[in-house]
Amino acid sequence: MRTAPAEAAAAAALAEQQQRGSGGSARVGLCLLCGLPAAGKSTLARALSRRLPQRPGWACALLAYDELIPPEAFLPRAPGAGPQEPCPLLPGWKQSRRELLQCLEGFLRALLTGAPPAGPAQPGWERFLGCCRRQGLLPAAEGEPGAASRPLLLLLDDNFYYQSMRYEVYQLARKYSLGFCQLFLECPLERCLQRNRLRSDPVPEQTIQLMAKKIEMPDLRKNAWEQHSLILNSSDCISEDDEQIMNLLATALENPERPNEEDTEQKEAARAICAASAVHQADQACRRVISQAMQDAKGKNVLPSEMKSLAEELNKLKAEFLEDLRSPSAHGSYFPFETRKEKPTKQGELGCCDLSVLQVLPGAAPFHKFLGNARA
What we know:
51% of the residues lie in helices and 9% in strands. It is α/β, with parallel strands linked by helices. It is elongated.
């Protein structure tokens, strides 16, 4: 079983290979079709899956969530049903979406490495493989010669009404350096309800109305990861030959996402939080040392005037040490402190904090002096 660091390293290697295009591997892109039920997503997705292999000659496959997530996943669990079975941590549909993402990642890994597809041990994996097999994707994933010579576009057809749902797929694209884009179909609620009534298996109208209140459109100005997005009015039929759509798909394939890119501000904020935590732990450790040193001095009948001088000196050295620890030069190589409970201390010992970690930090020279004085 792979560890998390091993998984990350493997993904980085695959992403690098995908960016270089080594081994003749073709470009791969993920395109999300988003919008309310009956907005026209599936109609457009099916039209694109027929059109793209003809011109411009890309390989294309449609992954429809309605077909890959079983209907029972959306049913509420009956009270008292299955008392012997543990209650799942997530509702059925959320768990199914998570498993579907795992299946997609397993397929992508096989596609990029040429290894046999290996996914999670769950019924959804066989359902996912069946969908891929029907569309001729398994030869490409199994590394057959010439199977992956053309760019491959995977169309993911779902409501994706929350940005977080779309971001999960974007993270996969970024992890493996794939193209990523979004087609958001904007359609008036009444038009969607009208179309839905004509379906053989309509979605409950209450579900569509609730989703219309919650749906989050792509925000190109706020979210850099949504830059390759189109918002299309789907009140009328959208042509699969739409020039905007073709340009978006081509741009996404030609500009794969870069792996492990993080927002600079987020990184700085995280670093500041960690640094503040480190300083806080160091401060607590120093306070314990000072307290123990003062108790020892009192036990040795040190004069009050000398006790005062000792306290002032130790607090001054503590302040110098913490100030050095706060400096930017210390932030690059500090690490969180581990304060662990040990055996009860004996008279004269220095508390329960493992102070050795403090002594190897940048700017710790004042601390060495501080510690020496405290133990004297």
